[in-house]
Design goal:
By secondary structure, the chain is an alpha+beta fold. Helices cover 72% and strands 10% of the residues. The chain is built from nine helices and ten strands. A six-stranded mixed β-sheet has the order 9-8-7-6-5-10. The protein has a four-stranded antiparallel β-sheet with strand order 1-2-3-4, with no helix packed on it. A hairpin with a 3-residue loop joins strand 8 (130-135) and strand 9 (139-144). Helix 6 packs parallel to helix 8 and helix 8 (464-485) runs antiparallel to helix 9 (493-538).
Length: 539
């Protein structure tokens, strides 16, 4: 269709049909020159091999670099040194030659006779059921083998040594290049012979032209003489014919007179005969008409009687048919009544079956709902038990932490009054109120830590280092405070402000350490409930 469109509408003006291109020939099994037979734009579709004349789809030459990169295994196989096809044919044993079949199992360095590719040898075992066979011109082909079921199929068909030698003799004939060179030589010889024959034909044609000119001149002279002779003969013939015409004219005039007289007599006689014949025909026709009228009258009478009889018969037949139709309708009504009764019974049975099926289905769904409800109740009980266990653990942990936090709180309560008395002795009355506020804030901070520690106790084992850091910071703060209480009352104001700053930092560190375990506890407590809900949905 593309070629028709292009040839009709002027498309594909840059077609390369008739040109030459290098490509792979499957028949020659080599890269050869090809004549382009069919193309579309820049795409070459069908070509003809210039060596063997085979017409096939265009295949690019295989001698160049491949665009696709080779795999590592392919590169390793290529790196291995394999003998050439000719060396393999001379080296390997011809007695073990096998005719190729996908069912036969092949071994390395075994001679193989292929129906298409010819004689080759197994150069490599590629896979479990694949081998690489080297054919003529060192052309490797990957073939399937070892797919037979029985031992006979796996062994394959042996090829006689003589047949292998004969096939090798055919294979070792001239190469495609030699065939191409020989063909070029023959074409050159044929061209030279054709030129020689053309020259001989040209000379013969020249000689023939000269002879034809001479013959034409002789023919012209002969035709002139012939025309002169014929002219004289025509004049003589014309004179003779004129005389004959005059004599014939006189004879015909006399004959016409005699013929006219005879015709007049014949015409009178014929007219009389015609008159008598017509009178006889009229009489005969009159008699025939009368007889025909009589026959028609009789036929009409007989037809009338026959029609009366047919009407009587038709009345009787119609009466019988009406009776038969009446009986048939009665039977049909009875049959339809019976069918309706049967249909009613069938529908009643089907409704009964459908009712039973629906009751069974409702019972089954009710049983399924009961089972699902029981499962959900069990799951609810299990989750409640888990929550009770977690609550008991939390209570225990809270009690344990309360016991732990009582001791540090009592220590702080004993040490802080002494420090406050020293500060009160040195500072004015305005600063006494500030020290009281800080003293009131510290117990509140201790209570917060005591409330948040149970949550920190329930964090996972991976986050214990955070609680250790908080404990270490507490110890450091506790060790600093006694040192501050032992200082003499004559200490200066800058030292007191430094103590307050260190105490505030320690309290902030404790709060941060307590908040982190609480957040981790929330996450860990939320995960079991999510998992339990997912399990319940699956069930």
């Amino acid at each position: 269709m593309d070629q028709i469109f292009e040839s009709h509408f002027g498309g594909n003006q840059s077609s390369s049909n008739g040109g030459e291109v290098e490509g792979y020939c499957p028949k020659c099994r080599a890269d050869t020159q090809h004549i382009i037979l069919e193309s579309y734009g820049e795409e070459i579709r069908r070509v003809q091999c210039a060596v063997c004349g085979d017409t096939h789809a265009y295949k690019p030459p295989r001698g160049g670099d491949d665009d696709n990169p080779e795999t590592v295994a392919a590169a390793k196989r290529k790196g291995l040194k394999k003998p050439d096809w000719l060396d393999g044919m001379n080296l390997f044993d011809h007695e073990s030659a096998v005719r190729y079949s996908p069912k036969a199992r092949l071994t390395e360095n075994q001679i193989v006779v292929h129906p298409t590719f010819g004689v080759g040898y197994v150069s490599e075992i590629v896979g479990e059921q694949k081998v690489e066979v080297m054919f003529r011109n060192n052309l490797p082909r990957v073939l399937v083998h070892g797919r037979g079921d029985s031992d006979a199929e796996l062994a394959g068909e042996k090829v006689d040594v003589e047949e292998v030698k004969q096939l090798l003799g055919l294979e070792m004939g001239p190469s495609p290049e030699e065939i191409a060179a020989e063909r070029e030589r023959k074409l050159a010889e044929e061209e030279a012979e054709r030129q020689r024959q053309l020259e001989e034909k040209r000379l013969a044609a020249e000689r023939e032209r000269q002879a034809q000119a001479e013959r034409r001149e002789a023919e012209r002279r002969r035709r002139e003489e012939e025309r002169e002779r014929k002219r004289k003969e025509r004049d003589e013939e014309r004179e003779r014919k004129r005389k004959e015409r005059d004599e014939e004219r006189k004879r015909k005039a006399e004959e016409r007179k005699r013929e006219a007289e005879r015709k007049r007599e014949d015409l009178a006689r014929k007219r009389e005969e015609e008159r008598l014949r017509k009178e006889a025909e009229r009489e005969a026709k009159r008699k025939e008409k009368e007889a025909e009228r009589e026959a028609k009258r009789k036929e009409k009478e007989a037809e009338r009687l026959r029609a009366i009889k047919d009407k009587e018969k038709e009345k009787v037949r119609l009466q019988k048919e009406r009776e038969k139709e009446k009986l048939r309708k009665i039977k049909e009504r009875e049959r339809l009544a019976k069918e309706k009764d049967k249909e009613r019974e069938r529908l009643a049975k089907e409704k009964e079956k459908e009712r039973e099926r629906l009751t069974k289905e409702r019972e089954r769904l009710r049983a399924l709902k009961d089972k699902e409800k029981a499962k959900k109740d069990k799951e609810r009980e299990r989750l409640r038990a888990l929550k009770d266990k977690e609550k008991a653990k939390k209570d225990k942990e809270r009690e344990r932490l309360k016991d732990k936090t009582k001791k540090p709180a009592s220590k702080k309560a004993t040490k802080k009054p002494a420090a406050s008395k020293k500060a009160a002795a040195k500072k004015p009355a305005a600063k006494k109120s500030a020290s009281k506020k800080t003293a009131a804030k510290k117990p509140a901070a201790a209570k917060k830590t005591a409330a948040k520690k149970p949550a920190a106790a329930k964090k996972p084992a991976a986050k214990k280092p955070a609680s250790k850091k908080a404990a270490a910071s507490k110890k450091a703060a506790a060790s600093k405070k006694p040192a501050a209480s032992k200082k003499p009352a004559a200490s200066k104001k800058p030292a007191a402000s430094k103590k307050k700053a260190t105490a505030k930092k320690a309290a902030a560190a404790k709060k941060a350490a307590v908040k982190k375990p609480a957040a981790s506890k929330k996450k860990s407590s939320s995960t079991p409930s999510k998992k339990a809900s997912r399990r319940a949905r699956k069930r």
